[in-house]
Amino acid sequence: MVAGVACVAGDAVEQTTKSAALPTYGYTVVRTYPHDPTAFTQGLQYVDGFLYEGTGQNGQSSIRKVNLETGVVLQRRDLAKEHFGEGITVWNDEVYQLTWQSGIGFVYDRQTFAPKRTFRYTGEGWGLTRDADGLIMSDGTDTLRFVDPATFAERRRVKVTAAGAAVPRLNELEYVKGEIFANVWTTDEVARIDPATGRVTGWVDLGHLLTDRERASTDVMNGIAYDAAGDRLFVTGKWWPKLFEVRLQRR
After folding, report:
1. Which of 134, 41, 53 is nearest to 95 (CA)?
2. In the chain, what percentage of residues exceed pLDDT 70?
3. What's the chain look like in SS3?
4. Each residue of 148-183: pLDDT tens digit?
5. Residues above pLDDT 90, as percent of the chain
6. Which domains are present in the chain?
7. How far is CA 228 from the centre of its chain?
8. pLDDT digits 0-9 by tens, 215-235
9. Which residue of 10, 74, 216, 243 pairs with 236 in a disulfide if CB–CB is 3.0 to 4.6 A?
10. Would strands 200-205 and 24-34 be described as parallel, antiparallel, or unpaired?
11. 98-to-50, 56, 95, 128, 243 alpha-carbon distances in Å
């Protein structure tokens, strides 16, 4: 969300992780790719060989189509400066983009990035992803909303818990093999969530992807994308100079 917060594991998340006695996963870096260090990454998705990325900050928010191999931005559309861009997702031939506190979202043509329509929602907009049936949205709380992509009408909500304890600050989302991966804001932790119940099934620790020197000029980890065809998981962060393909390993 807002800039300038050091990326450290939050006490609440650490306590929840320990108390939950849930599986935890580390990672192996498979490959490293360049990433635009001026991109305040808010949303990320891999579709048909390209990355689609949403960035934030007033006056700097955008949606982008990015070459994975080179990090080059192939296509871009900027938001008006009054809007702070948030999560994005691709649904069929459209790109959906949330805003943080404007209460408005935007839908664009995926090929041209031409604006098509807007939608409204209550509360804040944080992360956005999709499953086979519709869109899934986070709002910075412990709640996930499941919404209709045609109308953005809310179909249901789930509270996310680990061993009965609420898991707040759910941020960037990605749907991976039937689970929702949710980055917990200000931490390097990703919760693996059962979308039917909201229960956390495991935790992923993505700490130390960047060196201390690299981390000094960046913000928090944020940005998860999954290539279903290639079974590849990509992660990055706000103002990060690199994007990583990682393979998860249970500890």
Report:
1. 53
2. 92
3. CCCCCCCCCCHHHHHHHHHHCCCEEEEEEEEEEECCCCCCEEEEEEECCEEEEEECCCCCCEEEEECCCCCCEEEEEECCCCCCEEEEEEECCEEEEEECCCCEEEEEECCCCCEEEEEECCCCCCCEEECCCCEEEECCCCEEEEECCCCCCEEEEEECEECCEECCCEEEEEEECCEEEEEECCCCEEEEECCCCCEEEEEEECCCCCCHHHHCCCCCEEEEEEECCCCEEEEEECCCCEEEEEEEEEC
4. 999 999 999 999 999 899 999 999 999 999 999 999
5. 88
6. 11-242 (2.120.10.30)
7. 16
8. 888 999 999 999 999 999 999
9. 243
10. parallel
11. 20, 10, 10, 7, 22
Residue of 99, 143, 95, 140 lying closest to 120 (CA atoms): 99
> Length of the chain, please?
251
22, amino acid identity: L
